[in-house]
Design brief:
The chain is α+β, with helices and mostly antiparallel strands and about 55 residues long. About 10% of the residues lie in helices and about 30% in strands. The structure holds zinc ion.
Length: about 55
């Protein structure tokens, strides 16, 4: 089961959701802290939080 990392645009809370791919396609994640649906997905596998291209 893949995990998806999200970051809330409202409170900047980062959270992880475990969903199947089909579930991920039809379910919208929301912030567990402030219940906002304004979340962005961050990809944990390839991007690192600190690296940047120079
Ligand atoms: Zn939030």
């Amino acid at each position: 089961m893949p995990t998806y990392e999200y970051e809330c645009r409202d409170c900047n809370k980062k959270f992880t959701v475990i969903q199947s791919i089909s579930e991920h396609g039809k379910t919208k994640a929301s912030c567990p802290k402030c219940k906002s649906a304004k979340v962005k997905q961050s990809i944990s596998h390839f991007t690192t939080k600190t690296s940047r291209k120079s």
